Amino acid sequence: MAGSHIVIAGLGGLGSAAALYLAYAGVGKLTLIDHDNVQLSNLNRQILYWEEDLDKNKTTSAIAKLVKINSAATYVGINEKISAYNVNDLIEGADMVLDGLDSFSSRFILNKACYTKQIPFIHAAVWGMQARLTTIIPPKTPCLECLYPKEIEEPHSTPIIGATAGLAGCLEALEAIKFIGKLGKNLLGKLFVFNFENLSVDILKIKKNKYCHVCNRRYNNADS
Amino acid sequence: MANINIELGFILQRRLKRKNIILEADTVSEALRQCQDEFGLDLKSHLFFLNSQKVNIQDNRKLQDCDILKVISPLAGG
After folding, report:
1. Which residue range is the domain that position A168 belongs to?
2. Which residues on B lie below 8 Å from A130 (Cβ)?
3. Where residue B23 sits, what CATH number does that domain have?
4. Mean pLDDT value across chain B
5. Per the domain annotation, does B77 fall within a domain?
């Protein structure tokens, strides 16, 4: 783990929990990306921030806590919004990228960049007491655009019960630790659908979409 | 014609105030079109799984009585 570099895109409820457990696990370098400041409404789930952090930027507040957990790791904070223009630089050199974002538009940008650079990408999303999770290993597995059509209507990102985001963030960290440490089986070509309201879990199979703009080579070539 | 049980995800259950939809259809696409027409299901904004395998709204796979078609909503929050 000490030789690994993991990028966490978005330091909200998912990213906070994932960052904590990756720091505890001994990841060598964590790059943390978020352009927001801490707001009162974040504090139900974004466990890296406390009342004293209100109005401070998230990356600085997060790193202040993480160095107290694992001072041997290197932490890089980037206060930028992910866009098509900066994404390649932001994830350069990463062994894995974790999705802690709150919109599909940003996720699609990140998915495409990860696919192009062949960097494994863990997708998670939450709402209420629902969570979704899958691990994408380019070019082996379906990518995020194979799963969700690009024209998808942007769903609401809140409300979120804090513990739901915490659980999903922990599962992202676990998927990363398994992948880096070559332990167990990752969630490849499968979508975990959690409903914590009635404690049901579905594991649904996903396949590559032959019309995917990101990962179908024939379609990409025709596009360019 | 097959009798199809369409299981709605939790968010849709709340919105449509029902747990499932039972209807007669030959194919996946026909079943989903009925859901759109009769129950106002927005096909562009959901994911569809036939017996736990992802399918799309153009899928013309033949349905059988024992098939389960699951509809879930995407989530965006982080």
Report:
1. 5-223
2. 10-11, 75
3. 3.10.20.30
4. 89
5. no
Q: What is the pLDDT of residues A168-223, one digit of tens each?
A: 999 999 999 999 999 999 999 999 999 998 899 999 999 998 889 898 865 555 44
Instruction: Let me know if residue B46 belongs to a domain.
Output: yes
What CATH number is attached to the domain comprising A20? 3.40.50.720
Q: What Cα–Cα distance (Å) separates residue A155 from each residue in A8, A53, A151, B78?
A: 22, 28, 12, 12
Residues on chain A bordering chain B, Cβ-to-Cβ distance under 8 angstroms: 10, 12-15, 99-104, 124-128, 130-132, 147-149, 151-158, 160, 165, 191, 193, 195, 197-198, 202-207, 209
ipTM of the complex: 0.86
Please state the domain count of chain B. 1
Query: pTM value?
Result: 0.92
Number of structural domains found in chain A = 1
